Amino acid sequence: GESVGLHLPTLSVQEGDNSIINCAYSNSASDYFIWYKQESGKGPQFIIDIRSNMDKRQGQRVTVLLNKTVKHLSLQIAATQPGDSAVYFCADTGNQFYFGTGTSLTVIP
Amino acid sequence: DVKVTQSSRYLVKRTGEKVFLECVQDMDHENMFWYRQDPGLGLRLIYFSYDVKMKEKGDIPEGYSVSREKKERFSLILESASTNQTSMYLCASNGQPLYNSPLHFGNGTRLTVT
Question: What's the mean pLDDT in B70-99?
Answer without folding.
Answer: 96
